[in-house]
Amino acid sequence: MSEIFEAGQSVTLNQILENKEWRVYQQNKLEQQFPNKTIVSVKLNIPGEIKQSPAIELIFKTGVNILDRVYDDVTLAKESYITRITGPETFYVIDASLRDTKTLAIEFEEASKLGRLFDVDVMSTEDQGHQLSRTELGFDVRRCFVCGEPAKVCARTQKHAKAEMIDTLNTLYDEIEASN
């Protein structure tokens, strides 16, 4: 079995918080540059202190390739794959409504265990600071990539040991690598 965190570098909480500020800046810049369009910000939900490695990059690129097809007909611009110490990210500028774009994002996130690893945030000037929730759109809450139960419950109760989450990620990576 592979080890997805091999050759990865640990990040600090401060680096994660600084990256969050960077992401918000990028999102705001895109909203200003493309008013009345929908902005999609894509990153991974990877547990632990290592957020970037060759295996994590492959997982991300595989998912983004799927998202490229999902958003193919409505993508105006795409900020290419961005390598950050806190993990890979990308941004799309979409010519579709916030609701339609968010629905496609949720469908991608729910389609497989791979999708459950992704955090696809959708925003636009039309939302005026209000993020559409999954339940507002008729979807279930986000599911845990290990067991499929509500992710917030698993996170809050720390249901899964770190080793169990890593094993699940390694198995997913092996499946992706085998299919390439």
From TrEMBL:
<dbReference type="InterPro" id="IPR005551">
    <property type="entry name" value="CitX"/>
</dbReference>
<dbReference type="Pfam" id="PF03802">
    <property type="entry name" value="CitX"/>
</dbReference>
<dbReference type="GO" id="GO:0051191">
    <property type="term" value="P:prosthetic group biosynthetic process"/>
</dbReference>
<dbReference type="GO" id="GO:0050519">
    <property type="term" value="F:holo-citrate lyase synthase activity"/>
</dbReference>
<keyword id="KW-0548">Nucleotidyltransferase</keyword>
<keyword id="KW-0808">Transferase</keyword>
<protein>
    <recommendedName>
        <fullName>citrate lyase holo-[acyl-carrier protein] synthase</fullName>
        <ecNumber>2.7.7.61</ecNumber>
    </recommendedName>
</protein>
